[in-house]
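Thread title: Can someone regenerate the structure for this chain?

I was given the following input by a collaborator and told the matching structure tokens would be attached. They weren't. Posting the sequence so someone can regenerate them.
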Amino acid sequence: MNDRRFSPAPAAAAAAAAAAVLAFVVAGWFAPAARDLITRIDRYLPLIALGALPILVVAQRSWRHKRLAEQLTRPPNRRWLHAAGLAGSVTSYLAPVFSGWATGRVTGMVGGTIPFADTQLYFHGAERFLFFGYLDDYNSRRPFNALLLAVRLAITGLDLRVAVILQAVLLGVACYVAARVVARDLGGLVGYAFFAAVYAFAHSFAASPLTEGLGVTLGALAFAALWTAVRDRSAVMASAGVLLLMVALSVRSATPLLPIALVAWFARYLRTRGLFDLRALGMGVAALLVGFSLSYAAIFVGNGNAANLNGNSGYLLYGMARGMPGWDAEHSSYALVYREHPEIVGIPDARRSRIVNSLARDEVLGHPFEFAKAAFQSGVNYLHLAYRSAFEPYKSKVLRLILTFAVVAAIGLVIGRHFRRGQRAILADLALASATVLAIPVLTLAIPVGSGPPGSLAAHSLFNLGTVLILISVGAFAAGSTSRLQNPGLVSFTLVSLAAIALQIPFIGIDNVRILAAMVPFVALPIVLATAGVLEQGPAARIVPSTVLNGAPIVRWAPVTLGLAVVIVALTGAPVARALINRPSVRTVTCADGKRAAAFIGGVSTQLVQRIPLSERRLDEISLTTITPATDGLAVYNRIKSKTTVVDALDSQGNDRVVFVPGGISAPRESVLYVCGEAVPDYFARESSICCWPLPIDFSYFAGRQVRPRSIGPGESRHDVGPRAR
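Best answer:
Regenerated them for you:
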């Protein structure tokens, strides 16, 4: 008889995972020495995660003693193994958060903490919603990110650092859930391959409030749901996955070609008779429409501008119609419209987007052949990007030639081996081997070979994972990996997904692979299936076969439940967060020169200091040496001295401001910071010629000294008093 009594073991394992994550956060937050250790390790984590994959594959194929693996995967131990995996996934995404704050190296952040450019627009867009009750035009393009950030800020008392930690935790949980779904079918090491591939990309965005982090989170959960739908042949699960994928693509915008293609594929895959399963097709189309309409629901909740949803789609199309292809960082197709139509500079974002979209439509219809030619060249540029990612780090031309020949020879082996054996899977294996090209620029994003300190692995020109992964993937498919996978539906699902992504590559390339964030889990599939193919061969099969993990206590609907919870929290939590945050009333404070003091609310702050060892530096301190004005367009920082606090906040009218104040102060958040001083010339706005901005860029710097109101007048709240000095 089955014993159905309550067992405390699962709860204990979950509690242990939560305790491990909490201990990591506490150590990183309060212990400078721990932060220093995290920083030293974090710089190599993407390299280690992917670099360990070939080593583990070789070890697993050659390891014939399976007793330890069998012990680990027994039900009593499996819970703790899963808890360790979850804790490891979350802490791996928390590591770049604390490391970035210590080193000042966070994508889109000055000194690791102060939002800059896109990041500033997202951060202040969320604060504007909380204080003023509306989403600005910029955040109306992709409203989910700003709404969810607003909820996290409200929960954390407007503390951006804690809000970023919550984002990293959510990202780690989502990637773990997706990796577990893969591992359930193809084995634990294949699940790790999926995690490592996604981590190589997402590591760079874990510490930033940009849309990439949320895009990967929802993309991973959508992928997990769709993978499960293939295995279980479930139309309901497929529809839920398509809905989540639509939301993910609205967060980190791209074309809806992938979910549309998957709806058609599932309708064909799930059929019992006829060409399509009409029930699956109807549910899929409904999921597409609901996913699309959720963006408008987010606009409604955020009181945004529905006319500007995905409003920047015409910039790249205009440039391509004018003959400038995408995926070219030196000659930006995206910015061409600014140079040819300077009259759009400085006008409101929604109006500018309408004008640009109209211009793009006219140019595409008027010059279809130029557009087609540019689209073809965009695809070629992406191939060049993949080649550079894999081979250019090698300084020797002879070595590059040898490695290129090795890849071509491996592809030839795919064709020759299959023709000799007469296998019908040749097209699938060849397509998957070629699809590795899609993955290489994404997987090598966070591994800048040659950029590490002298003597480090990252600085070694021969340690280039792009080449290693290409050779492994092509070699695996040359050996016939698809014919060894037990579920041909997964292979077909992979091919359709990669084909849909490849078809849109020419039309979405600005200058980097960030735009692929929501599709990264699908882009990683060639590496996943190559790993599975290698491990299936020979007498030394997987140490942890998929049958061992099939009985793991994972909730089947966990990806859908978690994904829908994120969407619901954004839509229903945002109005609650808006109601909980009170905008402080601003008093009239007069400076010594008779002028009115500038007032600032919300924001985040960090203090600039001279060289202090990481092991002695506080969390809210950053070295001036980590800011590179020449390369970051931050010339204003050349005038800033040590012991100055940088506050990135809103003024009383809700405009973005960066404030420099001598000494150490805290960000005002729900209080008011009064500063007597003057505006600082923004050299970036005056001298910048970068590509992808609505120039001129003006970040509105202000410098001065804090001044306090002498008293609180009748009827005024405590929020009117400026923040306490440290």
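The first helix runs from residue 9 to 30.
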